[in-house]
């Protein structure tokens, strides 16, 4: 049967063509080819005031984007899971957005900074893991999940409700702590005890239990391995970000400066990750400007969620790329780059424009 | 064409029968998933979301079917697919079983090893004629000679055969493997006797290196039997599909050195005559019957058993030597003919110029064979062989590529086989995908060794003049056959085995007849002969010139088969006119 190899080659080529074809909704739109950020923004601070232990490499504001995408994506899934079952969630679009945006942010720093091997490896590990997870889910949901999915994807079974809750808890958790610290194992008895075996939509219930059980088992096993690997390869991450501001706010704050300088500037320790941007916004509200963030005084990346038609126009910032929020038509994520010195103006600009700041990438 | 090749892809995709290899499973999985993705995307994008549901029965059906076949390969029932219900461990186990685990090396509950045929290629039992039972169409391997016979009879014992002959009158034709290529196994309106049911080993002596077998047994069956005793058939043809009775009737030869026609390895035979009586014959007992039956194309009676010589089953190593045709005779005489180490030998002459040859000799060796099995493993299909055959015969410069690229690559290997292995080829490797429009046919010419060069030149001129699509001319050597009436080696000869491709329309068949007669004349002009198991293109004069003792055989036939019961194309063509003109004619 020589026909089979020939037919297989033809079908694989056709399938690849369909998968990679252009012309459908663009999932990541870069602002331009290659590096669009002004080159003088892409430098390390030669004389940081911030103490060494609080300094992080300047290119990491870009490299943390793919990592954070893996928070934005589960957040989108969790939002979706409340409305409809995740069976119809466009997992593969997120896979594409992940790798496309990684390509764009790498384009910005390529050549301006030395290759950050450790960080790239970490991105590849989490990127490949997520790709495998999402691809398997997309496959499973297309082949099996779709067949048991209730009409209109309504969240009617206890299992789908469990999934919505679990997705929400998971994303709330990873906003603060690494994903592998999440206690997947504890969810298994909850799944089994919290749902009835029989009941309406029996097939769906059974299939979801099977699917969720598999997911929880695999993730607890994989998370355990990654935890060991991470502990062995990377230093414990600081949970704070040091910032140098031009002056202490007039209104006394709970934040007490670590150090004040003769010119009135001060060194503060702000919470890192998710809580960083509320803290920054609070300072901006008080008219503070930033001199250094984690020792850096050049480019800093932030993303905002804005209506599809919104276009940022400001001298203080540069558009890097946009990504549509595929499950929320009309909404897009806009990645902007500004300088540490102009961060206050950019945040104010976003607030004036009524667009939501999603995250400030604090290196 | 074999069953499996005829089967559509749907057999693989939608039936759970049989076994498949890991590699096939990967391939078919890639096919299923990519096809599903393509169709799903097209339906989703261009028709509607709902329309994609029609794909699911096909997808799940084909996944289950192919997984079943793969599980069978490791002797697991298809029900093991239910393991998927065990979360994590079930799917992991299945991935290992389906994608990675090696299949059983031998036949198991679910069938033979994939791509390995259960048996050598066989011709059918005769195609039924619609609305006209019990008539059947008997054809040979070339599919060029369909003959409608009155009935087909498969005797299970010699007694049954004798009784049938005693109790009936009328024409009889006899067939075994049916690998002759000119209607020697059938005659219109005759009772066709299919001898393949008489296939037992009657007696075997390891010490005497001797075996007595029923005539319907195939050489491959004998090989399986004697291999266990480290013995090997002394003389047979290259392909092991043939039945012993058929090979005896055409007195075939192989590539063995220091031997010749098959008759030289036969001690005695038993045959059933037209009246149903059983006769023993050997060189000393009923010698005229012995010499008239072996190589006698079933004219005198039906061979039912034969006592054959055996030899040791040795390891043999392939050696080759490329040389111009003009040097072959001297090379052969000096280094091969009297070389006690040479076991097989043949010289391949490259078309279309026929001036270059590759002399291939298998010599005795004490080295370890390079093949794992003692007998040649059978394959279900021969895609590479089939491709090469196609390329050699149908593409521009195909023959040049064979001589200068393909063969040099193939001969880079230095195989060491067992004697039995090297005598175990399956005709299936020659089978094309279809024989309806074009077919592969053999012819053979025997030329006294001293006239090798003269005949070669004449032959190549004729082939080129008629643009014959020759695949190969294989030259073999045979010692004289001193006795048989239709001896093709009356002295030491070179046999020119011509393998060619022809179209099956009438014009093409006629052209073949014309150049065949010219080629026969060329052989006769140097005191040679042509071989009779092929198309009966030769004129009566040519036949008698090539086989001067044929009249003696005809006289013997008239005596033993007075009612002319044993028919086939050969006897119809050359004996019938002889009968009508009288014995002296």
Automatic annotation (TrEMBL), chain A:
Protein name: Uncharacterized protein
Organism field: Spirosoma arboris
Lineage, broadest ranks: Bacteria, Pseudomonadati, Bacteroidota, Cytophagia, Cytophagales
From TrEMBL, chain B:
GO molecular function: FAD binding; L-gulono-1,4-lactone dehydrogenase activity; oxidoreductase activity, acting on the CH-OH group of donors, oxygen as acceptor
Xref: Pfam families: DUF805 (PF05656), FAD_binding_4 (PF01565)
UniProt domain FAD-binding PCMH-type: residue ranges: 142-313
Record bears the keyword RNA-binding: no
GO CC annotation, single: membrane
Record keywords, A-Z: FAD, Flavoprotein, Membrane, Transmembrane, Transmembrane helix
Record flagged with keyword Flavoprotein: yes
Membrane-spanning parts: 25-44, 50-67, 79-96
PANTHER family: D-ARABINONO-1,4-LACTONE OXIDASE (PTHR43762:SF1), L-GULONOLACTONE OXIDASE (PTHR43762)
Name of this chain's protein: FAD-binding protein
């Amino acid at each position: 049967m020589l026909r089979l190899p020939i037919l297989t080659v033809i079908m694989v080529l056709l399938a690849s063509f369909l998968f990679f074809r252009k012309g459908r909704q663009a999932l990541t739109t870069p602002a331009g080819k290659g590096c669009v950020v002004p080159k003088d923004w892409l430098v390390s601070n030669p004389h940081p005031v911030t103490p060494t232990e609080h300094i992080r490499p300047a290119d990491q504001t870009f490299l943390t984007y793919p990592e954070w995408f893996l928070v934005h994506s589960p957040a989108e899934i969790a939002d979706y899971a409340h409305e409809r079952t995740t069976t119809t969630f466009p997992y593969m679009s997120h896979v594409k957005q992940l790798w496309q945006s990684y390509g764009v942010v790498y384009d910005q720093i390529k050549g301006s900074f030395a290759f950050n091997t450790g960080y790239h490896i970490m991105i590849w590990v989490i990127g490949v893991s997520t790709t495998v997870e999402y691809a398997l889910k997309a496959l499973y949901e297309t082949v099996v999940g779709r067949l048991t999915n209730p009409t209109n994807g309504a969240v009617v079974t206890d299992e789908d409700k469990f999934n919505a809750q679990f997705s929400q808890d998971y994303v709330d958790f990873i906003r603060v702590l690494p994903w592998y610290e999440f206690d997947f194992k504890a969810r298994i008895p909850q799944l089994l005890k919290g749902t009835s075996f029989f009941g309406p939509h029996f097939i769906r219930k059974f299939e979801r239990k099977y699917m969720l059980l598999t997911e929880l088992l695999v993730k607890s096993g994989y998370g355990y391995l990654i935890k060991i690997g991470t502990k062995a390869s990377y230093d414990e991450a600081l949970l704070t970000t040091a910032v140098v501001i031009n002056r202490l706010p007039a209104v006394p704050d709970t934040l007490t400066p670590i150090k004040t300088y003769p010119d009135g500037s001060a060194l503060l320790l702000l919470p890192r990750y998710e809580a960083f941007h509320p803290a920054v916004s609070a300072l901006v509200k008080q008219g503070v400007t930033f001199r250094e963030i984690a020792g850096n005084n050049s480019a800093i990346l932030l993303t905002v969620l804005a209506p599809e038609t919104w276009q940022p126009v400001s001298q203080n910032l540069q558009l890097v790329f946009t990504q549509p929020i595929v499950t929320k038509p009309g909404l897009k994520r806009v990645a902007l780059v500004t300088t540490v010195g102009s961060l206050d103006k950019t945040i104010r600009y976003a607030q004036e424009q009524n667009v939501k700041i999603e995250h400030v990438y604090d290196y | 064409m074999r069953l499996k090749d005829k089967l559509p892809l749907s057999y693989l995709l939608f039936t759970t029968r049989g076994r498949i290899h890991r590699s096939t499973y990967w391939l078919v999985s890639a096919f299923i998933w990519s096809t599903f993705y393509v169709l799903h995307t097209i339906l989703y994008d261009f028709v509607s979301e709902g329309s994609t549901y029609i794909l699911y029965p096909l997808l799940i059906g084909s996944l289950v079917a192919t997984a079943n076949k793969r599980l069978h390969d490791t002797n697991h029932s298809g029900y093991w697919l239910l393991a998927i219900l065990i979360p994590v461990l079930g799917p992991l186990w299945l991935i290992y079983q389906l994608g990675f685990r090696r299949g059983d090396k031998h036949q198991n509950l679910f069938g033979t090893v994939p791509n390995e045929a259960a048996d050598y290629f066989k011709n059918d039992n005769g195609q039924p004629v619609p609305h006209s039972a019990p008539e059947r169409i008997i054809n040979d391997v070339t599919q060029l000679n369909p003959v409608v016979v009155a009935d087909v009879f498969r005797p299970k014992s010699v007694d049954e055969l004798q009784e049938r002959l005693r109790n009936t009158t009328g024409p009889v034709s006899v067939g075994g493997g049916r690998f002759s290529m000119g209607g020697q196994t059938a005659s219109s309106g005759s009772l066709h006797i299919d001898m393949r049911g008489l296939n037992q080993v009657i007696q075997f002596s390891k010490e005497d290196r001797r075996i007595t077998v029923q005539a319907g047994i195939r050489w491959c069956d004998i090989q399986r039997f004697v291999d266990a005793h480290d013995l090997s058939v002394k003389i047979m043809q290259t392909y092991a599909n043939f039945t012993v009775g058929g090979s005896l009737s055409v007195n075939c030869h192989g590539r063995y050195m220091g031997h010749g026609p098959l008759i030289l390895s036969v001690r005695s035979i038993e045959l059933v005559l037209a009246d149903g009586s059983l006769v023993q014959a050997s060189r000393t007992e009923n010698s005229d019957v012995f010499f008239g039956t072996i190589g006698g194309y079933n004219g005198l009676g039906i061979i039912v058993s034969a006592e054959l010589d055996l030899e040791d089953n040795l390891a043999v190593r392939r050696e080759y030597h490329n040389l111009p045709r003009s040097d072959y005779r001297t090379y052969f005489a000096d280094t091969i003919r009297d070389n006690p180490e040479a076991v097989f030998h043949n010289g391949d002459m490259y078309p279309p110029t026929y001036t270059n040859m590759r002399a291939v000799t298998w010599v005795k060796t004490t080295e370890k064979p390079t093949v794992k099995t003692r007998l040649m493993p059978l394959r279900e299909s021969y895609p590479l062989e089939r491709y090469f055959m196609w390329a050699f015969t149908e593409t521009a410069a195909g023959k040049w590529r064979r001589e200068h690229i393909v063969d040099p690559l193939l001969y880079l290997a230095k195989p060491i086989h067992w004697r039995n292995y090297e005598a175990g080829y399956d005709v299936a490797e020659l089978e094309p995908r279809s024989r309806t429009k074009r077919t592969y046919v053999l012819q053979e010419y025997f030329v006294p060794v001293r006239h090798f060069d003269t005949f070669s030149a004449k032959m190549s001129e004729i082939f080129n003049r008629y643009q014959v699509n020759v695949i190969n001319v294989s030259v073999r050597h045979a010692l004289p056959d001193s006795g048989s009436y239709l001896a093709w080696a009356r002295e030491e000869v070179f046999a020119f085995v011509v393998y060619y491709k022809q179209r099956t329309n009438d014009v093409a068949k006629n052209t073949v007849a014309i150049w065949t007669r010219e080629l026969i004349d060329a052989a006769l002009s140097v005191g040679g002969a042509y071989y009779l198991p092929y198309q009966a293109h030769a004129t009566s004069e040519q036949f008698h010139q090539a086989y001067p003792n044929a009249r003696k055989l005809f006289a013997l036939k008239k005596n033993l088969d007075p009612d002319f019961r044993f028919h086939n194309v050969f006897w119809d063509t050359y004996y019938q006119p002889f009968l009508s003109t009288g014995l002296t004619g």
